[in-house]
Structures are given as C-alpha cells and as structure tokens.
Amino acid sequence: MSSHDDFSASPGEHALVATSLGDGARALRADHPPTRLRARYGPWAVVTGASDGIGLAIARELASEGLDIVLVARRGDVLRDLAAELSQKHGTTALVVACDLATDTGISALRAASEPLDVALLVASAGFGTAGRFVDGDLTTELAMIDVNCRAVAALTHYFGARFARQGRGGIVLLSSLVAFQGVPRAANYAATKAYVQSLAEGLGSELRPFGVDVLASAPGPIRSGFGARANMNMSMALTPDVVARQTLRALGRTSLVRPGWLSKLLELSLAMLPRWGRVKMMGLVMGGMTKHLG
Predict the structure, then answer these.
(1) Contact at 8 Å (CB) between 75 and 55?
(2) Domain that holds residue 271
(3) CA quadruple 223, 187, 4, 8: dihedral positive or negative?
(4) Which residues are catalytic?
(5) Is 8 part of a structural domain of the chain?
(6) Is 27 among the domain residues?
(7) b/e map 113-147, b = 16+ CB within 10 Å
(8) Among 79-83, 266-270, 277-281, which range has the highest average pLDDT?
(9) What is the pTM assigned to this prediction?
(10) CA-wise closest residue to 192 among 138, 130, 245
(11) Would you tell me how many other CB atoms lie within 10 Å of the CB of residue 203?
(12) How many domains does the structure of the chain reveal?
C-alpha cells in the first residue's frame, strides 16, 4: 500500500515564496555543480501532496538536490512553512499552490501557476485510501478517491507529459502501490485506483520515451505516515517516507518500476509465485488483519 498525502485543497490560492537567504543561499548552491536530478529534470519540479508523507519527503529530497519546487496540497499554511524551511536550508525557491486537485478549478490553478516556470519534473503524490468492505463505505468518499487518485493524475500527466514531450526532456513519477498488481479485499476501490496508476505509468513510459521523457512507477508497501490513519488501517510494519523518497528518486531515469524499501520487496517476493487468485486471497488476509477493528 502506498502512503499518499494531502488529497485536496482549498481552491485557488498560490503565492511565490522566494529564498529568504538571498545571496548567501545562492552562493552556497553555486559552489556545488548541478546534481544528476537538477541537471536532468531541473530547474523546477512540481510535487503534489507535498504537505505530508511521501510528497513531503520527496520535496525535501529534491530541494537538497538543488531543484526549485512547486508545492501543491490542500493546506496552504503547512506548505508555506515547508517553503520557508526549504529556503533556509537549501536556498530553494518554492511556489506554494493550495488547490483542490479533485476539481477542475484546482487543476486549472496548478496549470496556470506552473505555466511560466521551466518545469521538467512532475511527482504526482497526492492521494488517499479507504479500507473496509466497499459496499459499506461512503460512496461520496469512494468517488472522491477516484477523482484524486485517478482523474487528477490523468489530467496532470496529460498536461505535463505533452509539455515535457514538446521540450524534449522531463520526468514523471507516479505513485503506484503493492496493491496495484491484484484485487485487494477490504481495500477494493483503493487497489483499483492504484492499478490504474500502474497501468498508466507503463503505457505512458513507452509513449514518452522517444521524446526524452522518463516515467517511473513507484510501488511501495505500507508507509508510516498520515495515510494509515486516514484509511483507518492498523500497520504493524511500515517503511518511512524518507526511504521511499530517496529510493524513488534514485531510480528515476534508470528504470520504469521501483519497489522502494526492504518491506516492499519482501512482500512482493512473498506474492510472486502465487497465481492471481492466490494473490487476491493473500492480500485479503493481510488487509483483514489491518482492518479487523472495522468489523
């Protein structure tokens, strides 16, 4: 299960938060040659879901690599604090875009805010999950999850994918999950949204590779972040977002699929020899243990 981050936002707010360290921070950055990520995907990256979990960890990692960042999530106050942190620590320039990615207005706000910038990397980390029997869940919430996990991802990859193809370079990171590779009882709709993301990344990677655009699907297992509480899951073992962020960015441009962290690899290995129906049954047992408190 991948840990997604802030899934929606108050509409329309965006504000430029420039580096607060001025010449000193710029001089610090100038003293070092461009990193692989900045040279290949800079100077600007867009990170959705940047207020928590994997998105937050990736934003910090990209800032340490010398990229400037468009920070996107619901909570503008959290993003502004993060922008100030990245500016002080790394000399990063950040554009804070507080918007609801479940809406056309939110997608349009992000497109408009990023249009003037030299963006060459999209990290689509915004999303959320639900747990329990699908038919017992709230339909409004389940449909909202499809809007954020699938519809928004489609809209953003369509826009930035076309933009990157025109400029002849770029990278797209999509957050898949361990649950993307089979149906998962008691997380049926969430797993279905991750299957969409995984399939999109595979097809899109083949389409965009001739144009110099790298597409990576990152498929972690359980992550220790706000995702578990939001999805009402009890996770006894989980990876940290920092591990997922580092290994995901290390894989970008080198492969099309990464399973970050030892736990992701161990869980996939345990499922690898099973037929698909066996994987479904095994994942049902795992999810049953994580959601038994739901009845």
Answers:
(1) no
(2) 13-294
(3) negative
(4) 190, 194
(5) no
(6) yes
(7) bbeeeebbbbbbbbbbbbbbebeeeeeeebebbbb
(8) 79-83
(9) 0.86
(10) 130
(11) 11
(12) 1
Residue partners of 27: CB distance under 8 A and separation at least 6 = none
Please name the residue that has the structure tokens 């922008």. Answer: 83
Residue 7 lies in a domain: no
Rg (CA), the chain: 18
Strands 213-218 and 44-48: unpaired
Q: What is the mean pLDDT of the chain?
A: 87
Q: Is the peptide bond before 33 cis (omega within 30 degrees of 0)?
A: no
Phi, psi of 236 (to 5 degrees): -80, -30
* Position 293 confidence tier, pLDDT thresholds 50, 70, 90: low
CA 282, CA 272: separation in Å to the nearest integer? 11
Q: Across the strands, what pairs with 94?
A: 17, 69
CATH number, domain at 184? 3.40.50.720
| pLDDT tens profile 210-252 | 999 999 999 998 876 554 545 455 555 668 999 999 999 999 9
Q: How far is it, in rounded angstroms, from Cα 211 to Cα 153?
A: 20
pLDDT at 18: 41
Contacts of 263 (CB under 8 A, 6+ apart): 221, 222, 237, 238, 239
Alpha-carbon distance 99 to 75, whole Å?
Answer: 8
Does the residue 252 lie in any domain?
Answer: yes
